[in-house]
């Protein structure tokens, strides 16, 4: 959408652009009625004063904002590093905001980015913040990564297809009792798509037992929570295969299984998601799903620059790869 300007606010408030500027800057001797009309118009249009614009520069700021839910996670930190790398190649500065999955924190972060005059924004991950992203897109070009929001251009992964293939491969390997263990969706499209792939694969099979555990607590300390869940609940049902939505969850299950004297993969197969660096060196090493954070970041950045330059860009879906290791015995030909 077209960026809201000070002239739009002036037109709605019935005053001049210079009056809007003085009201929003504060300190000017202007009637309270006029001030109220200007502030109401600015709020209705979603106008945010741009501190960089106040310097009267006409060129772009050559800076972008990137909003992430949790920069400490390996996937998100890889995305941040990659975007920074591609931005430096073409002389752009990157400002990062971590929302902590809190809407108020994200709203404040977006406001700060706009006030710093960023030329556009990239939102990676996240779930219930769609309205905030749409609001931001009224002011600057926006791309989303690993999630979709209405008609905003995006780069996503084929989560559903990948987990469907993984689940079918475990079925072909002889497993008949399945547990899906993951975070509650909370608006996260990538999480819901992974679970949808699991149900796609197994819902029509009549010779299996399927259990699902979607836990709010797994949005926090995935390793210790999954360890506890196995010891308190899962070991008593002991499925043939546990498909998880994250490598840390899988690692917690593997550690708890070892403590309980349950052998992996002989007694229970375990799969993860994200292909964290540690998963290749875990014992047993984790069968998982690899998704290319660097390629996602490159396409998001290039797409945003195209939008900033008023060039067309399209949404893209990247393919993931199933990495077969020791925690689940799957034949290469099955995936």
List the helices and strands and how they pair.
Blueprint: H1 6-13, H2 17-25, H3 32-45, E1 63-68, H4 74-89, E2 93-98, H5 103-115, E3 121-124, H6 130-136, E4 142-145, E5 154-157, H7 159-172, E6 177-183, H8 189-202, E7 209-215, H9 222-237, E8 241-244, H10 247-259, E9 269-271, E10 288-290, H11 293-308, E11 316-318, E12 321-323
Parallel strand pairs: 1-2, 1-3, 3-4, 4-5, 5-11, 6-7, 6-8, 8-9
Antiparallel strand pairs: 10-12
What does it look like?
With 335 residues, this protein is α/β, with parallel strands linked by helices. The protein folds into three domains: 6-47, no CATH class; 61-157 and 293-320, Response regulator (Rossmann fold, 3-Layer(aba) Sandwich); 159-290 and 323-334, Response regulator (Rossmann fold). Helices cover 42% and strands 16% of the residues. It has eleven helices and twelve strands. It has helices spanning 6-13, 17-25, 32-45, 74-89, 103-115, 130-136, 159-172, 189-202, 222-237, 247-259, 293-308; strands at residues 63-68, 93-98, 121-124, 142-145, 154-157, 177-183, 209-215, 241-244, 269-271, 288-290, 316-318, 321-323. Strands 2-1-3-4-5-11 form a six-stranded parallel β-sheet, sandwiched between helices. A four-stranded parallel β-sheet has the order 7-6-8-9, with helices on both faces. Strands 10-12 form a two-stranded antiparallel ribbon. Strand 6 (177-183), helix 8 (189-202) and strand 7 form a beta-alpha-beta unit.
Structural Rg: 24 Å
What's the number of domains?
3
Terminal CA distance? 42 Å
Total number of helices: 11
Strand arrangement, major sheet: 2-1-3-4-5-11
């Amino acid at each position: 959408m077209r960026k809201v300007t000070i002239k739009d606010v002036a037109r709605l408030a019935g005053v001049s652009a210079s009056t809007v500027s003085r009201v929003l800057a504060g300190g000017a001797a202007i009637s309270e009625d006029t001030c109220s009309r200007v502030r109401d118009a600015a709020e209705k249009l979603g106008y945010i004063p741009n501190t960089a614009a106040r310097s009267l520069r006409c060129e772009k700021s050559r800076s972008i904002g990137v909003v992430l839910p949790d920069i400490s996670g390996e996937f998100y930190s890889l995305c941040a590093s990659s975007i920074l790398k591609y931005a430096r190649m073409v002389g752009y500065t990157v400002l990062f905001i971590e929302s902590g999955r809190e809407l108020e924190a994200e709203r404040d972060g977006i406001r700060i980015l706009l006030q710093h005059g960023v030329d556009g924004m990239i939102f990676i991950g996240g779930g219930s913040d769609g309205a905030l992203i749409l609001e931001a897109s009224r002011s600057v070009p926006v791309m989303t990564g690993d999630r979709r929001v209405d008609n905003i251009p995006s780069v996503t992964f084929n989560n559903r297809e990948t987990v469907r293939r993984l689940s079918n491969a475990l079925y072909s390997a002889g497993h008949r009792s399945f547990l899906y263990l993951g975070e509650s969706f909370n608006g996260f499209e990538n999480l819901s798509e992974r679970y949808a792939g699991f149900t796609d694969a197994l819902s029509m099979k009549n010779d299996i037992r399927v259990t699902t555990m979607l836990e709010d607590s797994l949005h926090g300390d995935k390793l210790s929570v999954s360890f506890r869940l196995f010891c308190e609940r899962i070991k008593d049902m002991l499925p043939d295969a546990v498909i998880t939505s994250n490598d840390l969850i899988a690692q917690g299950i593997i550690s708890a299984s070892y403590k309980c004297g349950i052998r992996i993969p002989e007694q229970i197969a375990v799969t993860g998601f994200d292909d964290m660096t540690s998963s290749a060196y875990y014992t047993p090493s984790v069968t998982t799903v690899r998704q290319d954070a660097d390629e996602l970041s490159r396409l998001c950045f290039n797409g945003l620059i195209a939008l900033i330059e008023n060039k067309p860009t399209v949404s893209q879906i990247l393919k993931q790869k199933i990495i077969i290791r020791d925690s689940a015995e799957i034949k290469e030909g099955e995936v």
